[in-house]
Amino acid sequence: MSKHNKLTGLLAATLMASALSGQVLAHGDVTPQAVDTEGLSSLGEDWADTNPYRAPSDDHDLAVKIGASAYNQNCARCHGLDGISGGIAPDLRYLSPDFEGDDWFKYRVINGAVRDGAVYMPKMADTLSQEALWAIRTWLETKYVEE
Ligand code: HEC
């Protein structure tokens, strides 16, 4: 095995381990990773009602690219790598790419999910920008699976 392959293997193993431990814990012990949204249109303070980066937005393609890695860094530990849920949290590929899906997405990332004092999902919007979260949503829409 070349040095490069070993490193890649190690990285994959580390990613797997953190994904797994995230699945076991899944109680909000999460360090959000900064997301560089440079190049995307700024959205200001107020939350948009619908995904502002959805096609035919000029921002669509860049949003998909930024959203893919932002998702894997901030959501995958609970919702599954590449959007495929391992069962611990809902599979986000089923969120419909329309107003209804936008509304629910927005509600959850702003409010998180807390039951009986336990944090099942942290309030992601406290630490990630609206731009980063809509970029994640834009990427998720490319993975959409009809129920
Ligand atoms: C610590 C684990 C965890 C992390 C990290 C997390 N979530 Fe969640 N999320 C959950 C759980 C658990 C639920 C189900 C909550 C419930 O139904 O009470 C959920 C629900 C959701 C829902 C509603 C889905 C549905 O079908 O009802 C959306 C949308 C969502 N999360 C988006 C995200 C996004 C986007 C990120 C990353 C920015 C993220 N979550 C990060 C655990 C997490």
TrEMBL record:
The keyword Signal applies. Residues 1-26 form the signal peptide. It comes from the Bacteria. Residues 62-144 form the Cytochrome c domain. InterPro entries: c550_proteobact, Cyt_c-like_dom, Cyt_c-like_dom_sf, Cytochrome_c550/c551-like. One of its GO terms (molecular function) is metal ion binding. Keywords: Electron transport, Heme, Iron, Metal-binding, Signal, Transport. This is Cytochrome c-550 PedF. The lineage of its organism: Bacteria, Pseudomonadati, Pseudomonadota, Gammaproteobacteria, Oceanospirillales.
